[in-house]
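I need you to check the entry underneath: sequence plus fold tokens. Let me know what the token row says about the fold.

>
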Amino acid sequence: MISSNQDRPAVLAGLIGRGIQGSLTPAMHEREAWEQGLRLIYQRIDLDPLGLGPEALGELLTAAERMGFAGLNITYPCKQAVLPLLHELSPDAAALGAVNTVVLRDGRRIGHNTDCSGFAAGFRRGLPGVARGRAVQLGAGGAGAAVATALLAEGVERLAISDTDTARAEALVEALCRRFGAGRAAIAVDLAREVAEAVGLVNCTPVGMAKLPGTPLPVAFLHPRLWVAEIIYFPLETALLKAARALGCRTLDGGGMAVFQAAGAFRLFTGIDPDAERMARHFAAMVAPATARAVA
């Protein structure tokens, strides 16, 4: 006999970020919890309708602790702003200088990063066998730090990084070179030339999201020898991916990273190993109607 919702052990979790009403993370967590025999309630804490900014993170974390949250996912623009508010960082989060998952346990706030492993898993799954020579990454924020680390760990030989905040890009390049060796990362001074000489391109900026449409670089920079990856999944087909596919590029949407980072966070919140492939199937079912409308 299947137990009622009220009979199942309960877990409370949430997501803090800006413009997150379209996030599919809550549904992925709640569905996987149900399959595992749990009742997980996952709340969106959207800074935009609340009229708040990252400076409110401390109050929001305190409120979550008082309400008994097991943990929180953290997204744009808070992945680095949350760092000084935590008691402890996992090795990955400390190395990356960014947190996307906070576990609240025994009065302590422990920061983790599942973006790096999430992107790496999605990259291996979605772009098997691609060339790993020179690549270009757009964006050096919290997610960008995780993706850059994953790319170099996956064997990309040299990663050129471009960001509107030059100091932030320089700090990331310095950290990557310390970790992976001199010359493995560099600032993309001439973006057009870097892309022309690259085998891969990754967008880690918010440009291309439903709320910020467009492409993060001129489409004319693209060429058929590139593989092109996104971390955005709302929409799943961004203008960048559409343009790249039209040229014959191999592409990777942000769905894989979304699923695998969520699987890592689920494990941290509940202590239970999720079925990542089941979560991927659920994600695909959720995005299928929107994708069909976009194609039509």
User: Anything to note?
Assistant: DSSP finds eleven helices and twelve strands in the chain.
